[in-house]
Amino acid sequence: MREGRYKASLIDSDAWLLTCMCYIEMNPVRTGMVSHPYEYRWSSYAANARGVTNALLSPHMLYMALGEDPPDRQYAYRKLFRRGLVDSQVHEIREVLNQELVLGGEDFKDKITQMAQRQVRRGRNGRPSQRATDG
Average pLDDT of 23-42? Predict the structure, then answer.
């Protein structure tokens, strides 16, 4: 397993939290460590999708909103995994994480840019234009 420096990115939870949860819980499957996220010992999938008790976990309000009761939430969570992530979502999450940028909608990124006074979006590919370097 390849290890490196810890990286983190701020996400707009309303738009991306459940997608990121799927991404994280599918990582052991993508790497071939297990064939299903339920099999990975350190995954929260067993708690979120099957109701296995785990004292280390506190459900997020967006997870709680998936259903009226635990069986409804667990069913809805399993359904997210049946639908899966499209390649563009996986690519975007990886890119944002690797560059430690912000994952979310444009309004969210604008708000974070103002608050943090730092770049939160990917830069343009290639070299800056001559006009940009002359100014």
Answer: 94
Q: What is the pTM of this model?
A: 0.75
Half-sphere exposure of 91 (CA within 13 A, CB side): 3
State the DSSP string of the chain: ---------EE-HHHHHHHHHHHHHHHHHHTTS-SSGGG-TT-SHHHHHH----TT----HHHHTT-SSHHHHHHHHHHHHHH---HHHHHHHHHHHHHT-EES-HHHHHHHHHHH-S--SPPPSSPPPHHHHH-
Whether 55 contacts 44, CB under 8 Å: no
Q: What is the rounded CA–CA span in Å between residue 81 and residue 37?
A: 9
Q: How far is CA 67 from the centre of its chain?
A: 21
Local confidence band at 108 (pLDDT 50, 70, 90 cut-offs): confident
Q: How far apart are CA 76 and CA 22, in angstroms?
A: 12
Average pLDDT for the chain = 85
Angstrom distance (rounded) from CA 101 to CA 97: 6
